[in-house]
Amino acid sequence: MSQENYAQISEVIESGDEQALIDLFEEMPAADIAGFIDENFEIYESLALMDKMSPEVQAEVFGYLRPNNQQVLASHMEVGLLAKLFRDMSSDERADVYALLDVKLQDALMRRLAKHDRDDLLRLSSYEEGTVGSVMTSDYAVIPASGTVEHALRRLRQTAPEKETIYQAYVIDNDYRLQGVVSLRDLITAAPHERIEDIMVTDLITLTPDMPQAESARIISRYDLIAIPVVSETGVLVGIVTFDDAMDVVEMEDTETMHKSATVGKIEGGLKDASVGMLYRKRINWLVLLVFANIFSGAGIAYFEDTISAYIALLFFLPLLIASGGNAGAQAATLMVRGIATGDVTRSDWFRMLGKELLVSLGLGLTMAVAIALVGSLRAGPDIMLVVALSMLAIVLVGSLIGVMLPFLLHRLNWDPATASAPLVTTIADATGVLIYFGMATSILGLPNI
Asked: Where does the chain cross the membrane (predicted)?
């Protein structure tokens, strides 16, 4: 939130003017109010602030709070007040909050909700996490295919306050099967007597509830959609995914990908609220595994002890060469993981991307070989300079190819390509780089490799 809004809320709270605080909450964006509560979270103070909001503002603010804070506040609310809050929240947000509650509170809450709200909440919360069903909403406008424009507009006026979006109205038949969609602009510009079935768009892009949630964001972005309908196998309209929901999915997916690329597991509730124990558990497995993987680098160095003893100057260039290979591999892996995630790169692009990376890495390797050769000429003799330059070319080339191939290999095995993270690629490139460097030195300098 902006510092100006933060200071404004703090000033009004300190003044003790309750009416000014109520008026401020009516005017200020709900996201900024939620940001203030999150940053200054104390259970009873937060509940007292929310008590100064209208039911509509309270529901909107609650939806913007961090999940951990939502869970704590909900557990400290009287069940009747929580039920009232749920009735004012959007369907997808209350389903998310419901999933955070313990079973006892869920049961108590259900007894306070109307049957329609209860059925809707159970349906939305039943979908598996990470699927389209888990992020869709039931707050959308529907109109019958057999009606007229005048009838549709009258219906929208009646239902608009309860819906998340009315810019598109979904046309259904008597069995709630999706027939088409009509934009609000088309309804306004059409003649009142025109029939909906004559002006609706029937060539629709749809999703199913069991599809990965990332697919909804990709399709909405690709086709510049405001929302996309979700239908069952029989064509029944079960929900929609809106643009703002898709943006939340993008943020979650990007965060998860970044965590995987750093060999960190998924952190529930965000970094700020994560416990020390959770952060330890999410990070320790890969770190221990990579420790043992780095033993191969040490074994490679030990294997070439005679070469190193004869030319101590080789050790000066070891960190430069190994780091260069790891960095090049990490760059290539990052590009491939992102390309696969966005659909820009598919399995059929394997040989094309491999060939392209071969040319790019050759260029990179030659440039870096020239740079390291200049350093080598000052630090050691021409023989070692040649070893270092050729090693740089080979190490960068191999490291880059490892960075390209590993995500493709994991993708082909139906594993998450993000697992081909920078630490993993770097570890493999390091071990390979040690063997290339000292193997080349032994060959060129004519020393035994025992």
From this structure: 284-304, 310-337, 358-378, 384-410, 422-447
Per-residue confidence band for 412, with pLDDT thresholds at 50, 70 and 90: confident
Residues of the chain with CATH 1.10.357.20: 294-445
Cα separation of the two ends of the chain = 64
Q: Where in the chain is the domain with CATH 3.10.580.10?
A: 140-251
Looking at 3.10.580.10, 3.20.20.140, 3.40.50.720, 2.30.30.30, the CATH number of the domain 140-251 comes to 3.10.580.10
State CA 444 to chain mean position distance: 49
CA trace torsion 270, 272, 273, 277 (10° rounding): 100
8 Å CB contact between 411 and 340: yes
* Other beta carbons within 10 Å of 365: 25
- Domain(s) labelled CATH 1.25.60.10 in the chain stretch across 3-126
Assign residue 177 a region (left: φ > 0; alpha: ψ between -120 and 50; beta: otherwise). beta
Helices (H), 77-128: 79-88, 91-100, 103-110, 115-125
219-226 — which CB contacts under 8 Å span 24+ positions?
220/246, 221/246, 221/250, 226/165, 226/167, 226/168
Identity of the amino acid at 220: I
Task: Tell me the pLDDT tens digit for each residue of 161-177.
Answer: 666 677 889 999 999 99
CATH fold label, 294-445: Tetracycline Repressor; domain 2 (1.10.357)
Whether 178 has a pLDDT exceeding 60, the answer reads yes
Q: Are 190 and 113 in contact (CB under 8 A)?
A: no
Return the amino acid letter for 374. L
What is the architecture of the domain spanning 3-126?
A: Alpha Horseshoe (1.25)
pTM surpassing 0.85? no
Band (pLDDT 50/70/90 cuts) for residue 190 is very high
At 450 the pLDDT is: 44
